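Go through this one:
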Amino acid sequence: QVQLVESGGGLVQAGDSLRLSCAASGLTFGYYAMAWFRQALGKEREFVAAISSSGTKTNYPDSVKGRFTISRDNAKNMVYLQMNSLKPEDTAVYYCAADSRRFRVVMSTQSGEYAYWGQGTQVTVSS
């Protein structure tokens, strides 16, 4: 049974930093691309970052590029999201997700391509 467990969310002020963590179990972690998505209240789920199975490739939308960094440790079955220069519009529940396919070459930005999801962690950025 695949489990993804996020941690590290909280309440911060604009300009602060947070590091989210996601612990994975029940899958051969190093085979799968991983991603972070977020969903603000009343809005659709939004792609935030993705990292290839090897960790050598990453992808970000313009809204977080240069502020957020995704990384992974395949030896520990962990994926991280370092968030710097946080803005109030970053407020959302953040979800960790594992790809539905092994060794995907081009990482998807679509939530439907990710088969496994964590329960989410709340990030609130006050102005």
Observations:
- The longest strand covers residues 92-102.
- DSSP finds no helices and eleven strands in the chain.
- Residues 19 and 62 are 19 Å apart (CA to CA).
